[in-house]
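LOG
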Amino acid sequence: MDRDTRNAAIAALWIMLLFGIAAYNLPKLMLAAGSISGVLAGIVAIIFLLGFFAVFWLRSRYQRKNQDK
């Protein structure tokens, strides 16, 4: 395992760990937001999903930019 592969694996582990913790707590957060507004609970879920995909999209752009050098 070379340095770049190891760093990618460590970054993926941290990302999955943090989003796993967030996903575990998401039902409580959505219930709390849902007691205020049903639309707010939906917005919380959408922000979570968009954030998950945005992190991997940004990471791929960063890797692609550094690969060209």
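LOG (cont.) second protein
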Amino acid sequence: MTGFIALAVIGALAFGAMVLLRLPRLVWSFAGAALFLGAAGYAWQGRPALAAAPAKPTANPVAVEPESIALRERLMGRFTADTAYLVASDAMLRAGDRRAAAQVVLGGVRAIPQSFILWTQLGTNLAIHDGDQMSPAAKLAFGRAMHLAPEHPGPPYYAALAYIRAGDLPAARRLLARAVSLSREGTEYRRQLAGQLIVLDRYMAAVEQAGR
């Protein structure tokens, strides 16, 4: 009821303002129509008795750290036709639109079907979209990437990260070890991947020790 009273007060104030300002009758008709439409909409959808609550964001952003992008560029390269889709995917993930992130990379795969880089990113995005689970679609995408580039460390590395997020540490460990073995000696990214493997081994050992 309070909402309707407020609406009536607003209407009265608007009418009084038009009288005081001596506005033309034509303006009165426009203002009256606007007030009538507003009142009709409020009567149809207004819920004045509903308790107030702070707005909650619907998006759930996915962190895409600069360090992760730098490592990806060392592994996959940069400024290629493939990486243009990766940049768009990063933006979608940061915005929390997991579906759009998967779709934009899927469009890239259709345009460049032999790109192991895009198949790898598609596997990552599908796993994220499916609640950080290694879904059959994500497995298929990673499998395709490894088939296209069996000697490249990128596909097994990102598949390992997806398995870590899914909680399957043994599978992650096997793939991460494979990525390290495929990495070129003396490179910065090999040192980074080897360091991550050491951390994972220590964590798994601690979990096993705690379970005894």
